[in-house]
Amino acid sequence: MKKNTKLVAVGRKSQYTKGVVNPVVQRASTVVFDSVADMQEAISERGKRTLFYGRRGTNTHFALQDAIMELENGAGCALYPSGAAAISQALLSFLKTGDHLLMVDTAYEPTRDFCDKILSGLGITTTYYDPLVGADIESLIQDNTKVLFLESPGSITMEVQDVPSLVKVAKAKGLITMLDNTYGNGWHYRPLEHGVDISIQAATKYIVGHSDVMMGVAVANETLWPTLRENSYLLGQCTSADDAYLALRGLRTMPVRLQQHEKSALQVANWLAGHPLVDHVRHPALKSCPGHEFFKRDFSGSNGLFSVVMKQGHRKAINRFLDSLHHFKMGFSWGGFESLVTANASMAPLRSTTGWQHGPVIRLHIGLEDVEDLIADLEQALKVYQESL
After folding, report:
1. pLDDT for 335 beyond 90
2. What amino acid positions are annotated as catalytic residues?
3. I want to staple 219 with a disulfide (CB 3.0 to 4.6 A). Which of 74, 86, 164, 364 is the partner?
4. How far apart are CA 152 and CA 145, in angstroms?
């Protein structure tokens, strides 16, 4: 089957749909058994998407797991109550006191906070590395390094990593590799096909697609799946059947939505690239984005998220710009149908290794509104920005 057909069909086994189009919503805490033999069988098969206990999942969860496994081409999928939970629990599943973690310096801010505030207290050390370091990552590997964590493109500043080069070194040194694939979403990029061991997403974003569900997913290869599955269960991770249902529903239309997000974002990004106040645009599909050559080589497409680096500015100008926007709402998420904006006067506080020598950064998520309306909104807001300089 072609990709579009497959995404419509996956997770729709008759045992999940019960004769209707979508998998039924099966809510449960307790699963009951008619005999000791039935209960013993469920216990022995509990790791194989079999009804056992609510935290292990119901048929609604199993349908979503099937679909995400197909999307990411993995051996198993764990579900979490948020993207941050998926990242933190994946790390905790494979790190212990005395271990060392290599974390990309452009990581999602909550990931950085988890390393600095939680892992450090557990005796796990973190070294932040330049996202563009490539094969030179070898010089940062210590005797106790256990995990190499990637995020490509990076949060806010959008650097695209040379994943195959990094993975090659990691495998030679026996490291586990994890990648935050929320931008690539399994549709435009499949990390496991590039040698990554675990691909993680905030399904809150494009999988759900409607800004109404918090969810994270982690897909592992065959070697690491049993450990990820059991440790995530022991850490108490689970999601509701209703949220799993909404994620499945969003997944069916994700390719169509992504196509429009991509088209509109490129139009807005190219318009902004020519604006006199803009230093450069960090959209992975544009040459001005660091690591663009890796994006062009490895990804099949982009989406609605990108950042704009201004030539100059300060907090007052940024605030006036944000307050003057109409169609772009301020919000910390992305991936929904609506356009969003956030801004940082400086990226320096969020960098440990790479620093920041550029102007303010404005991050945009281009939603499904008419592009002409969005450009007009940005144009009037940029005039306010200029008046405030």
Report:
1. yes
2. 55, 108, 180, 205
3. 74
4. 21
Q: 368: helix, coil or strand?
A: coil
To the nearest whole number, what is the mean pLDDT of the chain? 96
Q: Note if the bond before 153 is cis, omega within 30 degrees.
A: yes
Return the SS3 of 305: strand
Phi-psi region of 45 (alpha: psi -120 to 50; beta: other; left: phi over 0): alpha
Spell out the alpha helix ranges (H) of the chain: 3-9, 14-17, 36-44, 59-72, 83-94, 109-114, 163-172, 225-234, 241-273, 292-298, 315-324, 371-388
The C-alpha R_g of the chain, in whole angstroms, comes to 22
Is domain 3-250 in CATH 3.40.640.10, yes or no?
Answer: yes
Read off the DSSP letter of residue 161.
P
Sign of CA dihedral 182, 185, 188, 189: positive
What pTM did the predictor assign?
0.96
Taking the chain, what is the end-to-end CA distance rounded to the nearest angstrom? 55
**Cβ distance 281 to 97 under 8 Å?**
no
Task: Measure the CA–CA gap between 177 and 9, rounded to whole angstroms.
Answer: 30
Q: What band does 232 get if pLDDT is binned at 50, 70 and 90?
A: very high
Q: Are strands 278-282 and 216-220 parallel, antiparallel or unpaired?
A: unpaired
Which band of pLDDT confidence, cut at 50, 70 and 90, is reported for residue 47? confident
Q: How many residues does the chain have?
A: 389
The matching CATH number, chosen from 3.40.50.880, 1.10.3720.10, 3.90.1150.10, 1.20.120.80, for 255-387 is 3.90.1150.10
